[in-house]
Amino acid sequence: MDYLNIFKQAWKTIWNYKTLWVFGLILAITTAGGGMVNGGPGGGSGRGSDGHHEYTYDRQEHGPLFNQFGEFEGFESFKDFEHFSGMPFPETFPFNTVLTIIIIVAVAVLLLSVISAFARYVSETSLIGMVDEYDDSGEKRSFRQGLRLGWSRSAWRLFLINVLLSLPTIVYLAILGLIGLMVYSGVTSGQTGLIVTYAVSGGLLFLLSTFLLVIYSIAVKILRQFFWRSIVLEEVGVRQALRMGYALVRQNLKDTLIIVLMMFGLRFAWAIALIPISILLFPAFLGTLFTGLLAGGIPGALLGGAGTLAFGLPVGITLGALLGLPLFFIVAFSPWILLEGLMAAYSSSVWTLTYREMIARQAAPELLPEPDIPVVE
Questions:
Q1: Which of 20, 87, 146, 243 is the most exposed place for a label (fewest CB within 10 A)?
Q2: What is the pLDDT of residues 203-254, one digit of tens each?
Q3: Dihedral of alpha carbons 247, 250, 253, 259, sign
Q4: Is residue 38 over pLDDT 90?
């Protein structure tokens, strides 16, 4: 396999096919991110010292916050908190307002997650299909045509594969919960031997599961590139894509690892190059920062004002922030998002061309004519 040619061809494809930048930009956006209470010794109406001067603590004035050994016992009323902190505490907690804010934030996060997932997988499908067509016939699609290409059953299958590959992460989180229960059981038992046993067992289980998850995540990140392209280019289902992608990587393990190392080196060089690029882009950032304030501030203020009139100030601020902050960050950091979008489109092109090369090498022997074998009589 001519590795350098794949990277060169991917760059030519991206440079000559500007529509791919738009889908790369979508990928860059959708895949991107009280105080302490110090109690001194004291109790009752006794005296204490902090090392520099003595002081007295009147339990009648401040409330029974400490016992006779100087240990903090907590607040018995809102007044205790006010005396201790110097801050007023509301007599009635605004449960309805807080519940409304929680529901609004939860709905906004859910809606944003659905939109991001939809945009991501459609864009991934479009990039893979458009690069394949361009490399095969030189055909270029418009953004609308590329969107129609991505709007397919394949995009849904990409999502299903990602969900399936995320199951070990859910198991890992369950293991962390089990470790927490083990440690909690040991601590509440009060037995030193049991505490040590559970702590050591939990620590070993945590290290082992974390190590296995890291190895799995690295392997999946590589294999997923082939699973996705099997779905989009071969138009197969999830189960068949898993088999085809795994078989292709296993048969071309050396080439796959070399591409992975080259991509890692490219990403590292890109991260280093972004340092001087960011310095050069700083004047532009000042302009996009101001534009971002307008782009996010004006719609956010309008929605926040309407929400304040309808539901009150806390809900209005929440609504304004949910709309304004994403717009602000997208516009303010647009130069870096554009660069990351270009890299996302380029990376996708590299993997698509790699997949095509491996498939072509597999099919090549079957396409060759059989050699003429002389018959010896």
A1: 87
A2: 888 899 999 999 999 999 999 999 999 999 998 999 999 999 999 999 999 9
A3: positive
A4: no
CB 274 within 8 A of CB 339: yes
Predicted TM-score (pTM) of the model is 0.73
**Which residue ranges make up each domain of the chain?**
47-85, 165-251
> What is the token pair recorded at 24?
């790369």
Q: If you ran DSSP here, which 8-state letter would residue 91 be given? A: S
Residue type, 341: G
CA distance 370 to 129: 33
Q: What string of DSSP letters covers 253-294?
A: HHHHHHHHHHHHHHHHHHHHHHHHHHHHHHHHHHHHHHHHHH
Task: Give the range among 15-29, 54-68, 230-244, 248-262 with minimum mean pLDDT.
Answer: 54-68
Q: Which pair of structure tokens corresponds to residue 308?
A: 């304040």
| Amino acid letter, residue 162 | N
Asked if 186 contacts 194 with a C-beta cutoff of 8 angstroms, the reply is: yes
Measured distance CA(240)–CA(227) in Å, rounded: 9
Q: Is the pLDDT of residue 364 over 60?
A: no
321 close to 300: Cβ distance less than 8 angstroms: yes
Which DSSP state fits 72?
B
What average pLDDT does the chain have?
A: 81
- Nearest Cα neighbor of 187 from 174, 196, 200, 178 is 196
Q: What is the torsion angle, in degrees rounded to the nearest 10, for the CA atoms of residue 14, residue 15, residue 18 and residue 21?
A: 50
**DSSP class of 68:** T
How many Cβ atoms sit within 10 Å of the Cβ of residue 53? 6
Tokens linked to 210: 């974390």
- Gap between the Cα atoms of 148 and 126, Å rounded: 8
pLDDT in tens, 328-338: 998 999 889 99
Contacts of residue 281, Cβ cutoff 8 Å, sequence gap at least 6 = 335, 336
Q: Bridge-partner residues for 55, per DSSP?
A: 48
Q: Which amino acid is at 349?
A: S
Beta bridge partners of 66: 72
